[in-house]
Amino acid sequence: QELYDNGLKKTNQGFGARLNAFFAQFRSVDENFFDELEDLLIESDVGFETSEELIDQLKDEAKLQNVKSHDELKKLIVQKLVEIYDQNGDADAEKLTYNEGKTNVYLFVGVNGAGKTTTIGKLAQRFKQEGKKVVLVAADTFRAGAVEQLKEWGKRTETEVVTGPVQADPASVVYDGVKHGLEEDADYVLVDTAGRLQNKQNLMKELEKIERTIKKLVPDQPCETLLVLDGSTGQNALLQAKDFDKTTKLTGLVLTKLDGSSKGGVILAIRNEMKLPVKLVGLGEKAEDLADFDAASYAVGLFH
Ligand code: GDP
Question: Is ipTM beyond 0.90?
């Protein structure tokens, strides 16, 4: 919780400070107030569609409950933010899938620099601490540095890393890696992939092939296909999510760099428009800077 609060401080300072400053300006809760609040939400990357929905609901609810004071309204906003977030009513949606006694394959996708390799390193550390056996697969064979970086995480977390020759077919590295994980009875196989945007079509084909390859070995895997997004890219993150979702069947999101200049609102936009749960948040560059997402503390934190 402390990590969470500290890590999210900047994001909350951004979005939250704007909300708080906004409240300070207004004496009464009228039409103008709601219009301005909607603008603020859109500016904070909540997105047009989601902001409009939220404001409509807030207006109705404020009238219904005869809300007049700022504090009451803040409480209502927090409640609505959490509701938007938890709309599916599935409390387990945020939990990472884990099938006991099986080799759980997680596929990580996302553009270069989003934080895939770092997230895999952090997760390897978490799973190792839980006493699990983990295998990492370096399928970003396009960028030489990517393999080295994953190997570095492997060393740090004492986790085996399966690699292939330079410029190898990523799917063949994935084949070797998953096969190895199965032979070793690993609890987790975490697959890193390339994220070059310059050639999107080839990238998407490559990801499809990787998914097929995994399914050939284990039909019910990958049990998680996680899209890693840089939270500070704002609305662009939403566009990326839509792009990747077309090719790979995403099961959830990892939002990284929430310790940075993220405006935070994009979490709501993606959740509302894509119906994808945020499973993890990145709150720094170190191995321990990874947390499960919690909608309530996120929303409440906005007003701290
Ligand atoms: P990839 O290309 O998607 O594998 O991205 P990397 O894992 O290489 O991350 C790109 C950069 O972002 C690296 O310098 C990471 O240290 C940094 N990074 C990743 N996650 C976070 C995070 O949650 N917070 C911060 N501050 N930096 C991060």
Answer: yes
